[in-house]
Specification:
Elements lengths: L1 E10 L4 E3 H5 L6 H8 L3 E3 L8 H16 L8 E5 L10 H9 L5 E5 L5 H14 L5 E8 L19 E10 L7 E6 L7 E2 L9 H7 L3 E2 L1 H22 L9 E4 L4 H11 L10 H4 L6 H11 L8 E8 L3 E8 L1
Parallel strand pairs: 4-5, 4-6, 11-12
Antiparallel strand pairs: 1-7, 2-3, 6-7, 8-13, 9-10, 12-13
Helix pairs in contact: 3-4, 7-8
The structure holds acetyl coenzyme *A (ACO).
The site of acetyl coenzyme *A has 24 residues, from helix 2 and helix 7.
Length: 323
């Protein structure tokens, strides 16, 4: 048994921050940002009305409409986020209450940028184990709240967004979920942000709860490990990479995607991208991109996809799914 993608939805905040806007905030240029990252603009949430939970609710409603289901059919909600607006309850519970999914069990997961892939993996395994039939899987992030807006090395990279997917059990098939997830906690220090809640002094808050990233290290890690895990996935599950229609990668940097394309010898036209307009939206990036492809008529039923993501932890992974 496997979960099939029944619906997709996304939400992007209305405020757009362009590279030209950033030129006025830090010493940078549109040319540098586009050349090094492929990003031209990103969406930034309103802290009052576009919280992680509000964006998750909007993306979920869109996914439910796309799936054409009753919210009462949903029996599992999992939200991936590292930037929840509430410490508790979980964002999944806030979504459940707002959309009226009264029959759903709910929890959140935190796995940085690969959060959606991790949540998708968990939902698929819940479906296979018979613990649920209709799962709502969400990635929602407001990284803008955690960025150091004076650090040109990081603040240019990220945007806010939410994406949601309805997965429904296909009981007619003996097909099974194919996924590999990995982690290397020894390298945690190259991408980190400490909780503001545990620091006592104002000085500590400023110093340690800012978004910290060793960009080059993360770049090298992603360009090396993402192709490796995709090849491992193909080998483990006898997937022919040539049969894959699209490789839907975490949108962190256009150059990382180009490096993966080169290492796998798979042409760039099989790697859809929206990073130019969204920046890196962390756990939201894959479901937002899938929704945009579907809305543009560029995602056809039956297409074979590999989803792959990477980020803080360090964590990374890849999964195979037919749309
Ligand atoms: N504008 C202009 N110059 C800049 C900027 C900027 N915004 N940022 C850095 N520079 C400068 C640096 O100061 C440096 O100057 P120097 O040579 O005088 O010292 C120079 O540009 C080169 O800096 P690098 O950091 O080496 O630049 P690089 O080519 O590596 O690009 C980048 C930096 C874009 C951050 C890249 O390393 C990258 O994309 N890394 C991966 C990031 C990523 O994918 N993160 C995922 C996060 S996922 C999660 O879990 C949250």
């Amino acid at each position: 048994m496997i979960g099939r993608i029944k619906g997709l939805g996304s939400y992007l905040p209305s405020k757009i921050l362009t590279n030209q806007d950033l030129e006025k905030m830090v010493e940078t240029s549109d040319e540098w940002i586009v050349e090094r990252t492929g990003i031209r603009e990103r969406h930034i949430s309103d802290p009052n009305t576009e919280t992680v939970s509000e964006m998750a609710i909007k993306a979920s409603r869109a996914a439910i409409e796309d799936a054409g289901i009753d919210p009462l059919e949903i029996d599992f909600i999992v939200v991936a986020s590292t930037t929840n607006n509430m410490v508790f309850p979980t964002t999944a519970c806030l979504v459940q209450g707002a959309i009226g999914a009264d029959n759903a069990q709910c929890f959140d997961m935190s796995s940085a940028c690969p959060g959606f892939l991790t949540a998708f993996n968990v939902a698929q395994n819940f479906i296979t184990a018979g613990q649920c039939k209709t799962a709502l899987v969400i990635g929602s992030e407001c990284l803008s709240n955690y960025l150091d807006w004076t650090d040109r090395g990081t603040c240019i990279l990220f945007g806010d967004a939410a994406g949601a997917m309805i997965l429904q059990a296909d009981e007619e098939t003996d097909d099974f979920h194919k996924c590999i997830m990995k982690a290397d906690g020894k390298r945690y220090g190259c991408l980190k942000c400490e909780s503001k809640m545990q620091r006592i002094s104002e000085e500590d808050i400023k110093e340690k709860s800012r978004f910290y990233m060793e960009g080059r290290e993360v770049f090298k890690f992603a360009a090396t490990e993402v192709p490796k895990v995709i090849l491992e996935l193909c080998e483990k599950y006898s997937i022919d990479l040539n049969d894959i229609d699209k490789l839907v990668l975490h949108q962190a940097n256009k150059r990382i995607i180009e490096a993966v394309s080169k290492r796998l010898s798979v042409p760039m036209d099989k790697f859809p991208m929206n990073i130019e307009r969204t920046g890196n939206t962390s756990a939201a990036s894959i479901p937002v991109l899938l929704t945009e492809l579907k809305d543009a008529g560029e995602l056809k039923r039956g297409e074979k996809l590999i989803l792959s993501s990477f980020g803080a932890g360090l964590t990374w992974g890849a999964a195979y799914i037919e749309y």
